[in-house]
């Protein structure tokens, strides 16, 4: 009798331990994702798909929580938290990663590629994977995927812009990475770095004269209320990545590491194709709000910004990447 009771007790104890382990797993493996984007940005739908698909693929063992509108702080602060081992991730451009691995900066260089298909070839290439390994080993940051395309960036101003000469004296917000500030300076404006969340009030109060961004971000930040013109320069093809802590990822069971990377790549495609499909509608929406959208000959801007590659030592790399994008 005691023999059967002991067996039953052992079995119940094992079941309880199993349930506790499952609960701990779900509680321990939580990834908090920060993004400057608003929830109505097409890219955010990709993040929602990422969270849902990771939960399904991991049988609930891994939870992804989303924090739009930079709720966890500026991108740079979240990157530092990730480097310290915190289970956080951030949607970030290559320019902000260039301080750790210089090659990442070229992804934000002017007129590198147009549209999503070409730039996707670049960020899934063997060459890019070498940069990602260096970022992992040298900076403690893991690239979950880098195929989160936000569209081409354009000039947002209160006056008509037809060429570089029109940008003389224009204080233009841009991210603070050298590839971004160098591009805007080469285009003829005065680069003025500041957080994206401050752009609306800064333009409204004439602290700056304009900004540059992709159309989904313009709508998300309601900049149609403070600008009058968008000039379709397409000077930067904004490809971003989902970056997290290398130490945290390495601590996960191998199957969860695989799930994170595979689902991030799939979700990046969902986000990017959603952006592609939304652009025409967003352009019409901005026109309906009274914004003048100018289509111009961008050749003078291409010629003016070509120097950025050589200034930053990316001349040879540009040729390699443009060849990959053209394949």
TrEMBL record:
CDD domains, per the entry: PBP2_TRAP_TM0322_like (cd13669)
N-terminal signal peptide: 1-26
Organism listed in the record: Martelella endophytica
GO BP, one annotated term: transmembrane transport
Name of the molecule in the record: C4-dicarboxylate ABC transporter
Pfam families assigned: DctP
Keywords associated with the record: Signal
